[in-house]
Amino acid sequence: MDNQTYSASDMCAPGKVSLRQMVKSLVWLAATCALYMVMFWLVKRHPEWSPGWRVLATLTPLLPGVFYLLSLLRSFRAMDELERRIQLEAWVFALAGTVVVNAVLNVLNANGMGPAAYPHGLQIGGVYMTMYLFWSLGFAISRLRYR
Amino acid sequence: MKNKLRELRAARAWSQGDLGDKLDVSRQTINAIETEKYDPSLPLAFKIARLFKKPIEDIFTPCE
Predict the structure, then answer these.
(1) pTM above 0.95, yes or no
(2) What's the CA gap between B24 and B21, in Å, rounded?
């Protein structure tokens, strides 16, 4: 294929990062989330557990979380230089966008005009969601830029 | 930076995918270099020069 247009499958193609690697990352992420929910439920249902056990159960999801991070790093290393550039731009966009959104919320809250849902700015869940949204947007923009 | 990658590749009747495989980069990277949207790193530029058996400055020229 020699022309400069790309099909939808090309845009989704992971380049030098194998599909297997991406699936592996997603499996570790799913395991982390699932274990987090299970442990959250268990700790809430068993207030009789000793503090040690409660801490251990709460921190258990960190284990698949570490494997998820390692898997992400492996994917990053497997990327070619343009893909790394695209990812870097997407992450910078995500970070900057999240900081701006949080700053706006904090300024609005300080002046008593903040949205009722965010009285203390973005909470940790909000930060993850906002970062993910900005990362997706940044990734799409950057990908189109080098298309 | 301007480059002659497209001409060099076309002269050998290679597709962007073929060239990407030879250089161990994605087809999108080759396309971005050819359309001058992306300047390759120095190691990749050397790899390209070695592949086409030409000095780097014969392939890449800075924009004035």
Answers:
(1) no
(2) 5
